[in-house]
Every structure is written in C-alpha cells, then in structure tokens.
C-alpha cells in the first residue's frame, strides 16, 4: 500500500510545454529592444508614440492568439482528447515561430498570433491534463512542475537576450534571429515527449471508454488495473460523469462549456513582457543594464516558483499563498509608484542613491512574492475548478508613456483588489478530489469562500462517516 499515490517515472510533457510558454513570454520584450531588431522593424527612428504602439501590438497579437487558442482548444480537447490537441498546438506554435524569422512586420504579427494560439491552447489544456492524471494529495506539486519549468524558461529567455546583445554585433540580423529561433526547440520536444504519454483517464471515462481509462490510470499510478484503488478511483470518476450527465443532459453541453469558459478571466503578467521597460523607468540606462536587471528578476521568480511548487502549495494551500503574495506584491508596487514620482525617474535618470537601490530591491521583492503566489496558483486553481480564458495585454507601454508613476499605482491597486477577491471568493482546494470540486464551485454552492469550503467539508465528512459505517476503510485517509 505504500505506493498508492506513486506516479511512474515516465517522460512527461510538462517541461517542454512550459519551456516554450515561459521562453516566449520572456524573450519578446528584450528582443524588441535589441539594436538589430529595432533597425529591422523600424523602431530605431520611430517616435515615442510609435515605439509604444509597435511593441504593444507585437506583444498583444500573441495574447489575441492565446485567447482564441485557449477557447477553441478547449472545445477540441473535449471532443478529441487532451493528448492530440496538445501535440497539435505545438505544430501551430512551430509555424508561428518560423514566420517570425522572416523579418517583415506584417509576417511578425501573423507569427505572434500563431505562437499565441499554440501556447494558449496547450497551456490551458496542460494544467487540466496534469490535474486529471494526478493524485489529490500531490496535485499542487505536479501542476507546480509546469510552473517551475516555465520560470526556468523565463530566465533562459531573459539571459539569451542579454548574451546576444553583449556578444553578437548589432549589424547582423543573427542578433535577433537567435532568440526567435530558439522557440523551435521546446515545440519539437513537446511533440516527441507526448508520444508515449497516456490520454487523460477522466476524459476517457467521459467518452465511455472505461477499460482504456483503467489501463491509463494503472500506468500513471504504477498499480495493476485490478487494484482496489484503481477500481475505486475509476468508480469515483464514473459517478462524477453520471452526475454531470444528469444535470446537463449531455456529458458536457456546448452551452455549459461556453458558460464556464467565459465566466472568469486571467490577467497575464505584463511585467514579464515589459520588464525592461519597467527597469528603465526606475533608472536603469542602456540595453545591457536593463537586460541584466531583467535576468536577475527572472532568477528570483524562478527560485520563488520552486519554493511554491516544491514546498508550499500543498502545505500552506492555495488561498493562503494568494493572500500572502498579494500583500508583498502590493507593497512593492506602491513603493515603486512613490519612488518614481518623487525622483522623477520617468523624465530623467535619478542618482544611484539609497532610494534607487531600494526601488530595485522592491522590484525583486515583487518578483519573489508574485512567484510564490499569483504566478502559479491561478493555473492550479483553474485546472481544479474550471477552465479559464486569457486577457490581452496591450496598454502597459502607453501607461508608462502617459501616466508614468501611475502605472505602479495601478498595479498596486490591482493587488489590493486581488487580495480582497481571494479572501472573499477563493476557497481552499488543497487535498480535494477533482470529482468533489462541485461541492466548492457548483451551481448550488455559495460564492463566498468560507461558506463554499464549509459545504465541502460537511458533505465530505458525511460521506466518510457513511463509508466507515459500511466498513469502507479506503475513505479514512480522505476525511477533511
């Protein structure tokens, strides 16, 4: 019984998928600031307004593609399975990366749409896929592996830009071709690594393929198909699917999927895309210095994410991390707003005094607290409770140009609202079975977090007592 929750050491696809999402998130902002890329795409001689518009458009087309990729990808994954659509998304991403290499602005836009489509589709499906294959007790850490690899790729993207800027002449297009072409590597690895992987057991059950689901679950749990734990888990999934059919008339109706898909939104972290702009606004001058500061920013986020996924998410829980992270990130943003206003760093380069050093530290503190919480928890929580859509990032360069220090105030206020939202409306999901999430987020459950959690605990504990009275010893470890 010691290996009831053991997963086989199989080659997974979390790493390459997270790598091409993380790398694409990180490299584009720095690449657009490389001298060779500024010359190729007409940024070198552009006005301030044009310089704000062009990066915004290039970054935002990626998010446009991600939005539609996540929406359509979800429907396709429900119809054809998780595995196939994840692989298809990598192919679409590869097409986009190739288009970006051509060096024409209109084709660059098209390439960004395709890479965004591939990332949006696979990132959304991946977190669902990992959750559906994971034991409840370690689900947070397994989904966290995705986030760790994403942050490692972020760091890689930041430092690739720094390296080519320092070592490759700006007179050659190789300076920007190298960071763009690296996108092809993780996309290819994703397709290769997905080949031996199983289909989601929960998706197989929803399609009436119970025997195939048992075989897949047996593989991933490292237990025989006849093992009582395998049979019990398959039974729980079947009961959940039957309940869903009873409530909707279909295993998942199109109307229900659409309602869930567009019920909430996830704000993509604009700091990742425009980190060089942010550091410039607090006094860093020169492309190399900005890229260096951005690289350190990425390392801190990576370390924070490792702490989150490896040690905290299944111990402190999702809700507590969101609250703690929101406080730390909010303090950082409000300090940066005050510093940039007092020092006038948006109009001139301030002297490198204690205030400037503290501003840099606060940017890194933001990276730490964000990495511990809002960077990874939404991926996990949404994969546990419901599918999500992406929101387009467009306005940050215009905010920096127009409202200056108000940019930091805006993000500071956002963190305050996020804390309030998490406290009121985000219930703890740590340790819960996916099949029981309707007890937390179902249509008949209160949206208030404490009431939803109380409903979950009351129903689950009642089930445990009934099972124990019937001699159901297998339920004892799940009592909340």
UniProtKB/TrEMBL annotation:
One of its GO terms (molecular function) is carbohydrate:proton symporter activity. It is a multi-pass membrane protein. Coiled coil: none annotated. InterPro entries: MFS_dom, MFS_sugar_transport-like, MFS_Sugar_Transporters, MFS_trans_sf, Sugar/inositol_transpt, Sugar_transporter_CS. Its main location: membrane. Residues 1-430 form the Major facilitator superfamily (MFS) profile domain. It is found in: Membrane. The chain crosses the membrane at residues 84-103, 109-130, 142-164, 176-198, 267-285, 291-313, 320-338, 358-382, 403-426. Keywords: Membrane, Quinate metabolism, Transmembrane, Transmembrane helix, Transport. One of its GO terms (cellular component) is membrane. Belongs to the major facilitator superfamily. Sugar transporter (TC 2.A.1.1) family. PANTHER family: MAJOR FACILITATOR SUPERFAMILY (MFS) PROFILE DOMAIN-CONTAINING PROTEIN-RELATED, PLASTIDIC GLUCOSE TRANSPORTER 4. This is Quinate transporter. It comes from Lophiotrema nucula.
